[in-house]
Amino acid sequence: MTKRFAFAILVVTCITLDTVSVGLKYSGDQVWKVTAGTSEKLILLKKFIDENNKEIDLWREPSDINTAAHLQVPEKLLASSRSTLEANGLHIEIMIQDIRSLLMESMEKNNRQRELRSVKQPRSFMDFNYAEYHPVEEIDEWIDMVAAEVDFVTKFQIGVTYEGRQMWALKIAKDPTVTKPVIYLDALIHCREWITTAATVWMFAQVFSDPNLAYLTDNVDWYFVPMINKDGYAHTWSDFPNNRLWRKTRSLGVNLERGDLCQGTDGNRNWPSSTWGGAGASGNPCDITYHGPAPASESEIRHLSYFIESKNDSITAVVSVHSYSQLILWPYNYSPGVYPPNKEEHNTLGQEMADAMYTVEGKTYIQGQSAEVLYECSGVTTDWTLEAGIALNFIFELRDTGEFGFILPPDQIVPNGQEMLLAMDKLYQQVVTRNN
What pTM, to 2 d.p., does this model score? Predict the structure, then answer.
């Protein structure tokens, strides 16, 4: 195919750091690692998190006495929060000294990558700079270029977002006349997790361009959704850095208790599983884990669930990509001790993928049942897809373990993509084996 697409001219193609810093949001805010150590202290820590969830952002929950909470604490609450936590015998370690400074440093690195582009307005996915983070418009252009240039890739629309953006997906099928098992992969359900789209876009670009990887599309078809939460992702780029850490969708909702408007729903608590609204999901619209007013209330989740349900006879595996923590998680998510019928298959394959990812740069990925390895949460992608009859269901939490958290610098994109590529090789092999 010969059709080519030039990048649309964006109003802002390179964020100018010295002109967008109005308001100085996040200045002086820190990320703390807080460890309980005993069951009694864990109860106190969780109580502190619940009581302060309107102002302290939970980056990672404490799943047990040895798993630390990662808390984004605003500057105005540093002294009082430290006093309260230490009075209860909780240990605090500063992980990020100043969030705003780290945000600015990360974007400066991204801007330098943009300036180093060998092709300023790429007309081919081969010219795309995969070592930088790209805004919504440029990811959409990448989708167009791939669909135009790779003869076994088709672009199609799954639905629309709350704000009316088109939700694009890629179907990767070398011979559509032959029925093959399917792997479904999506990214960016939580829009501050930029690495998820960047790493998976790099991964598929390698599959499309490297003859040594052609086998990954020989006996399996793929569906790839690069950006679930496009509205939220666009928001994280607008008015940088003030919106960079937004997580939820952009739908509107009213918190009647406070009488003010709280926006957005956690898309990964909104899937219409049988446990929607249960453990690890909040009914408070102002919380980052708000489950929404009803199952699949969010346009993005509703359209995705319709699509997956229509294809569940052919989809053998689902992979939903998140960050951060370096984890490979499988169902169920809502409670420890509750496992899929093919628990051992998940466990064995999860470890094979983790071992493969380790070979890239020695990064350890922990794998296991989600509620046991991470924390309890309901209304999650893979609980619903398992209930829908899909055999293999995984959530990946990409790099890192907290040094940068959601603000992973762009030099981590390619190695994280390499890790995902090796993991998908193991998944591919298992899907082919179980369908022979």
Answer: 0.93
